Every structure is written in structure tokens, then in C-alpha cells.
């Protein structure tokens, strides 16, 4: 019998907990690989609560329930989750441990799925609740799966090869480097559960996760250069087997847990951010001496080789033409008031499909009109969709997955009235221009080798700070090569608050976003985002090695929102030079009215 209401689902979960003699259960948005995006089968939090955000978790006891989200989702969670069933809790301010000890009480046994949480998460929670008499118990199986009658099955899509002509390096070469790393660290093997790390290491891709071209699998890499790939048999083709070669042993994914027990007396590494409790338990039960070290593919994957760099440039060139055509279409059609957020997002995807080998969008397009643009992580759906109002700001953050590279771009534009008389307010132009000035400072940054993203974040914020305003998200994230649009370990963000990646040194070859913003709640939002490539920088008489950024994204900026009087001469020159390069790269791909629009938008300020 299918349960249609969240009240019925919550009741069924509690009955299952009682049957197992458990006092409660913690439900994250996660899969066995700690992926950013998870398959439909792993959307347990959404099934239980109705929450559709990308970050958060719930805790359920026999008498209480709460959902924990950060500030990005304060509004969304109240729209989607019944407050009569779940308390709204804010993270990091509200502690899960404190809530559990208050609601569950002394002697409570709170279960968690050991395949959905990391070792460090469990250790930290245990340290908080066990002194209060609450036990954390790894569940033998997920209790939600036991009551979710129509739970989707994991994807059975076949995996496919990512050729060396696109990856720039062979899997054999990459596995050799991992073997050298293992030897240098006196390790026998490394368990790699992160799907993008597996894809990079073996030069394979898949379509198991929306927006990220990866295949559900695990890898154990050995110090002799061999690797075991654990994957469902239906996902393997003869072509993939040939591509992987004799040094990669393909094993059924159901054998993975048993394989963890094959390392008695051996030293095995697991990444603490991706190695879930179930992996550590399997290694320990088999007698392995496991240690926590960062996955050795992560930094190597982040530093793009020349082939990957050129692939990104090629993908960005196609993408720039598609987005430019969309912005011209928007300018013509949106003033009617008849274009809504979903229609705009679909039209943009259509232009992308016309302009290249688009395999997927790289994330859900943020198509945000009016006050929705003030929500940095807004996700439009049938319930939230609104017409784009004439005489307002519209923000679109989008990207594409192409075999040559992954794109991510945000443009903020003014939607005129039908008679062409609407003008942005002085405040809108001031904020847009301050965001632009910060964007320019990141783009032009020059910094010594050894600098991390946290050290240059303030470059983007300084002009907003002068006006007494700021934005609550990071300035930049890493981007993969036909992989995750959010890729570590590098970030540009405030170094406070323990944000992962802000202390990571930037290296030539790393790709990052450059996306400062400003958001006025309920009214409008502004963000300008290009991708940049970290490159070596020649500076006369420089004392040591210096780095800078090469711009990868080329789409016009909205001139209507620029307050030219706030720009310095050098900033005006930057805008004019940027638009000249946009014209040079994009104009050959356009014609007719699209080309005329581009020429107009790229004219000097």
C-alpha cells in the first residue's frame, strides 16, 4: 500500500523503529558515496518530509521530529515541510546532539545508516550524546527503505569510456601515480568511493546521477597499479571492459563489502570526507589497518592538464553562444510579461542543445525573477514558478555538461517594460556595479604561489563592504572536467566558519568560479559569474612564482545595470576588453538579429 501523505510516512517509519526496538533515526540527504547530487532512490529525506533542497537532514524519535537546514533554505523548508509534523531547526546554530538528548532522553538508541554517514560525523555526535545517556546505533538496513513501498531502483544505465583525447591522460598513467602515492605512504591500497574520483581515475563516465556524468561504483586501487572496480554487471559493456584493460578487475558491486575483508594485516587508506562508516567497519572487521587520508585523486583531478584546459575553452565557446542567444530572446520576449521562470529555463536549455554536444545541464537552472533572485539557491518548480515581471531584475545561473568540459555561468539582467520606458533603480545599479567591481578584482588578481582561496575572497567583497552590505555564499568553487560542477578541494570563500577548501593552496590548472553577488530579501538579487583558469603569471622582477586567472566564460554583461560613474578608468577598460573578446569568440557563431544584438551589447562603454 502506497503512503501518499507525509504524516502516514512518518507514522510508518515510527512503527518500523518500534519493531526494531529503536528510539529514533537520522535521515540525511546522502548516498553511499557522499555525493552532492543523489539518485532518486536515495532521496529519503524528500520522501519523508517533502523537502526538496540539496542540503539538510531530519531526526525522528518516537514522539518528536525535526528538520535541520541552513540559512539558504529557511523560506523553502517552511513552504515544503509541514510544521505540524517537523520542527524547523537551523544549522549550524541548532545542534542535532542537543536536540536528540532533549527529545529522546536517557537510554535512547538512535539509529543511523552507516552507509550514509562518515566516521567523523558519528564520532562527533557520539561525543555529544553518549555522556547524556543516548546511544548511536548503526542500522543493519535503512528503516526508511523498509517502509518506502515504491522506492525507485538505482539507475541501471551503462557506463561508458571517456577517451584519452578528452581526458588528456590515460587511466594507466593515473593509476601509476596512485601506486607511487601508496608506496610513498607505506600503504597497500586505497578505497575510493567518490564517484567523480572513480570516473577521473578510470576515464569512465555514466548517467546514474542527474547533472553529474558518473556511474555508481567503488574502486580499490593497489600499490602495484592494479585496481578493482565494483559495479553492477548490467552497467558493463564489452566496450567498457576493453577500455579498462587487464589491470582493472571488474567485480560485482555486491562483492564490495566482502572485498573490504580481504586486507587482513594490510594498510589501507580511506578519505575521511567520502569514506562512510560502512567502509571503515568492513575494513576493521577484516583485520585491515585503515588510516584516514585525503583521496589521492582529488588534488590531481583539480589540476587540469592542457587537454582538459583546452576542452573547457571549447565548451565555454559553444556555451557562450547559446547563453547569448538566450539573453537576446529574453530581451525581446520578457517585456510582454508572458514569460515565466520555467519557460525561460527550458528555452535556455534548448539553445544549449542547438549549440553543441550537450549531455545534461550541470545543475538545476536557477531561473529567478524579482524577489526569487534574492534567494541564492532558488530552485523553480511548478509550485514556485512565476511570470518574469517587466521592469524588474532577472537572474539566471546555469550550466551545461559537454564531453569537453563543464560550464557554469550567472547573468543578471534588466527586464524592460513593453514600451521600453522602465529603468532600474539607482540602488540596483549601485549594487550591480559594486558586484561587477569585485568580480573584476578577482579576475585581475595576481598572487604569489602558496596563496589560498580564503586569502583572496575579500578582493570581491571590498566594494560591497564600503556600502555596508555583503553576501552570504562563497565567491568561487572548483569545477570539474565533464564531471562535478562543484569540485574540490579549492574554493574562494571567507576563511572563517570552517568552510572546506578555503585553506587549499591554488595551483596552476585549477578552474574556479568567480561569482560575487548581492541580495535584497524579497526584492531582487544580483550575481555575476564567470569561470576562470588559474595560470602562471609573468611579472617583471617578481620575487618568486606568481599566479593569476585566465577568463574562460564569454557572454555579454548587462550594460543597463552598470553605473559607469562608479567604475575607474581601468575597470572601464576591463569591461571593454572583456566585451571585445566576447565579440571575437561568439560573433562567428551567430547571425542575423542575434549577431546584431551581440555587436550592440559588446560596444565600448
Automatic annotation (TrEMBL):
Q: Name one Pfam family in it.
A: Peptidase_M24_C
Q: Which GO terms describe its cellular component?
A: cytoplasm
Which Gene3D superfamilies does this chain map to? Creatinase/methionine aminopeptidase superfamily, Creatinase/prolidase N-terminal domain
Alphabetized UniProt keyword annotations: Aminopeptidase, Hydrolase, Metal-binding, Protease
An example of a GO molecular function for this protein is: metal ion binding
Boundaries of every Peptidase M24 domain copy:
312-534
Domain Peptidase M24 C-terminal positions:
546-605
Which InterPro entries does this entry report, sorted A to Z? Answer: Creatin/AminoP/Spt16_N (IPR029149), Creatinase/aminopeptidase-like (IPR036005), Creatinase_N (IPR000587), Pept_M24 (IPR000994), Pept_M24B (IPR033740), Peptidase_M24_C (IPR032416), X-Pro_aminopeptidase_P (IPR050422)
Q: Which residues form the Creatinase N-terminal domain?
A: 9-140
Indicate the family of this protein: Belongs to the peptidase M24B family.
Q: What is this protein called?
A: Aminopeptidase P family protein
